[in-house]
């Protein structure tokens, strides 16, 4: 049960003064999720991205030109727009003994201005001060205050990330109202560590973040931010420590064989294993042969050969007379895994079966019976593998592909389908070292840094959408020479609100030019139509496959050597890298065209630049982390905003190391968190919503 001290923070945002149903819906879309409306705590952790310096200048003459200026002046004159010139602005002259400033208002309400800025009154004015024809002017001042209210204008005003429907002043007001709800929390940090780090209490740190003393306090690495960041890291590391403890509760079981099946598979491979693959296979087999349970992450860039490593691990389980499963995040990827692995499994004498949500009737019953009686050695499928009703005769190994698409609790569910199941998780999204420690601190890690021999570099170009006709012409020449191409669009159908190419629309446009050579694939199509579209492209019947990001992971068509990503500026770096990884898998030279619509913002421009410069997934991951934040650690959300997450593992390596050590010692000394500090830690886990840890604590 959540500690009652946190109840004010977990109330809906509509309980805050001034947040009605309409504003609440905007905040739900901005800070909530599909299953959870926005709460006060979400606003409290919505941190400033910067601050505006509103410190007053001594006089108008001293006020900075071209920057935010704040000064006190007397209203001396109102100049209404000339008759017949409705678009002309309303001007008000304010002055002090050193000079004057013209305040400019377009579409002005003259009565309101007369009340707010009466002639002869003194006002505090704040806004961007500029020169116009040699005269000082300020267009639409941001703040106009009676000097009696000077104390209400902060010297440094925090600036928060915004969304459509919420202005800057409203956001500041409601976020600070949320921060005021923060209660005095029981202290979960070690007193000695607090003293050494000079960390303030939690509530005081929250207040400091939302009331910055200077610009650095809003933007930089301050004591308050480090305090809250450390709390977040500690919550993550304690959650991972609890997962490790849960894994250790169940005794392991050694799984080893004579190597015969593995030898037959390796002999059937049309290529030699890389050194990285051989080392990863050796590490996995060593883990499986031990009496402790294996929990290993296999991390490799796109095209580095993770699936073969997984097959060799599953072969080792079969040699011991036990079963394995390979779980993929999408049905397309699961079916492709099954199709590619089945011939190798058959040559090695293994029986492989596919199980997804689409399998029905007699076929599904036959698979379930084979899993239950042990006649099926390897099951490949989607999340359907860990649902109720799926039982295994003797499950030894669970392989989870594209780990970032699943939560830790799903990994635990799959691992509970047998006795002492070893778990191997794979990710094709390279992860920086410090972030790997954060996300996967409960695992051993194997890295595949090489690509199979013969892979050629992919030429990547960024092209303006204004050159669309040139791109279509280049695609035509490519397919005439025997190549195949992907054309990826962000949406399935046209959108009235987004000016983004739709897959359906692009398919129809390209089909008018290339006819039946164009196919269509997207996630809203029925399963059999998706299979047919993919099969037609694999067979070469269609030469251009227009698709959404459903092809992002795992899809492997060696003859496809051209990739067009339309509206590339709207994709994240990791997704662009994954999509590009669908080509360059054969012997032909490959080209990726990033079709963008300008003008580009700085982040979008940085993404496209790094994509042109490198294919190194680990370098791309570092840049992606810098640009967009680390996302959820123990959930399935893998993208975030640097402003929404407090901890910064890429720069806070010392904090991360301290949090790991503190979490380990805490769980060793107080495994059920029953001491006073342990109870405070429970509040910390709820505060940062480490749901896996909370579930494990509830289960004892």
UniProtKB/TrEMBL annotation:
Pfam families: DEAD, Helicase_C, RecG_dom3_C, tRNA_anti-codon. This is ATP-dependent DNA helicase RecG. It comes from Bosea thiooxidans. Keywords: ATP-binding, DNA damage, DNA repair, DNA-binding, Helicase, Hydrolase, Nucleotide-binding. GO terms for biological process: DNA repair. It comes from the Bacteria. SMART domains: DEXDc (SM00487), HELICc (SM00490). Residues 467-626 form the Helicase C-terminal domain. GO terms for molecular function: ATP binding; DNA binding; DNA helicase activity; hydrolase activity. Residues 287-448 form the Helicase ATP-binding domain. CDD domains: DEXHc_RecG, RecG_wedge_OBF.
């Amino acid at each position: 049960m959540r500690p009652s001290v946190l109840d004010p923070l977990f109330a809906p945002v509509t309980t805050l003064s001034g947040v009605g149903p309409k504003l609440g819906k905007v905040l739900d879309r901005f800070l909530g999720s599909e299953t959870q409306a926005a709460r006060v705590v979400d606003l409290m952790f919505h941190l400033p991205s910067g601050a505006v310096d509103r410190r007053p200048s001594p006089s108008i003459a001293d006020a900075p030109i071209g920057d935010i200026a704040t000064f006190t002046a007397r209203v001396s004159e109102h100049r209404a727009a000339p008759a017949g010139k409705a678009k002309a602005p309303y001007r008000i002259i304010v002055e002090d003994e050193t000079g004057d400033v013209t305040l400019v208002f377009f579409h002005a309400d003259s009565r309101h201005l007369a009340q707010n800025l009466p002639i002869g009154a003194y006002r505090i004015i704040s806004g961007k001060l500029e020169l116009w024809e040699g005269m000082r002017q300020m267009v639409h001042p941001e703040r106009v205050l009676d000097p009696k209210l000077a104390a209400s204008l902060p010297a440094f005003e925090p600036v928060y990330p915004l969304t459509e429907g919420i202005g800057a002043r409203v956001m500041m007001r409601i976020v600070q109202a949320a921060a005021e709800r923060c209660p005095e929390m029981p202290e979960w940090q070690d007193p000695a560590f607090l003293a050494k780090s000079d960390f303030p209490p939690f509530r005081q740190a929250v207040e400091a973040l939302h009331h910055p003393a200077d610009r650095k306090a809003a933007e930089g690495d301050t004591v308050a931010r480090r305090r809250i960041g450390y709390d977040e890291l500690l919550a993550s590391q304690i959650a991972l420590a609890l997962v490790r403890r849960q894994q250790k509760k169940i005794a392991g079981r050694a799984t080893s064989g004579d190597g015969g099946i593995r030898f037959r598979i390796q002999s059937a491979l049309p290529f030699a294993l890389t050194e990285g693959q051989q080392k990863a296979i050796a590490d996995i087999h060593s883990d499986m042969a031990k009496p402790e349970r294996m929990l290993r992450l296999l991390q490799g860039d796109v095209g580095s050969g993770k699936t073969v490593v997984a097959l060799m691990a599953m072969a080792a389980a079969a040699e011991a007379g036990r079963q394995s499963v390979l779980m993929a995040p999408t049905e397309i990827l699961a079916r492709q895994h099954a199709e590619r692995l089945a011939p190798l499994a058959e040559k090695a004498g293994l029986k492989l079966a596919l199980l997804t949500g689409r399998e029905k009737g007699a076929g599904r019953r036959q698979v379930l019976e084979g899993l239950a009686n042990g006649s099926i050695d390897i099951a490949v499928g989607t999340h359907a593998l860990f649902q109720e009703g799926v039982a295994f005769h003797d499950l030894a190994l669970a392989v989870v592909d594209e780990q970032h698409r699943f939560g830790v609790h799903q990994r635990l569910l799959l691992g509970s389908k047998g006795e002492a199941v070893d778990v191997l998780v794979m990710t094709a999204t390279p992860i920086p070292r410090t972030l790997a420690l954060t996300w996967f601190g409960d695992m051993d890690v194997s890295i595949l840094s090489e690509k199979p021999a013969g892979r050629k570099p992919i030429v990547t170009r960024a092209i303006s959408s204004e050159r669309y006709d040139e791109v279509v012409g280049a695609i035509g020449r490519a397919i005439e020479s025997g190549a195949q191409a992907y054309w990826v669009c962000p949406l399935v159908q046209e959108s009235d609100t987004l000016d983004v190419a739709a897959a359906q629309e692009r398919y129809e446009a390209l089909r008018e030019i290339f006819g039946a050579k164009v196919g269509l694939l997207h996630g809203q199509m029925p399963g059999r139509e998706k299979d047919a579209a993919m099969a037609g492209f694999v067979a070469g019947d269609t030469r251009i496959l227009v698709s959404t990001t459903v092809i992002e992971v795992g899809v492997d068509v060696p003859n496809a050597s051209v990739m067009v990503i339309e509206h590339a500026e709207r994709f994240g770096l990791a997704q662009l890298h994954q999509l590009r990884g669908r080509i360059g898998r054969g012997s032909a030279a490959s080209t990726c065209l990033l079709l963008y619509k300008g003008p580009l913002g700085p982040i979008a421009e940085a993404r496209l630049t790094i994509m042109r410069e490198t294919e190194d997934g680990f370098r791309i991951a570092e840049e992606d982390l810098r640009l967009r934040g680390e996302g959820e650690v123990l959930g399935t959300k893998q993208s975030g905003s640097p402003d929404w997450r407090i901890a910064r593992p890429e720069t806070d390596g010392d904090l991360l190391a301290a949090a790991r050590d503190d979490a380990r010692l805490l769980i060793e000394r107080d495994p059920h968190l029953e001491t006073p500090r342990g109870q405070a830690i429970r509040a910390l886990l709820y505060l940062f919503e480490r749901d896996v840890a909370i579930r494990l604590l509830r289960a004892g």
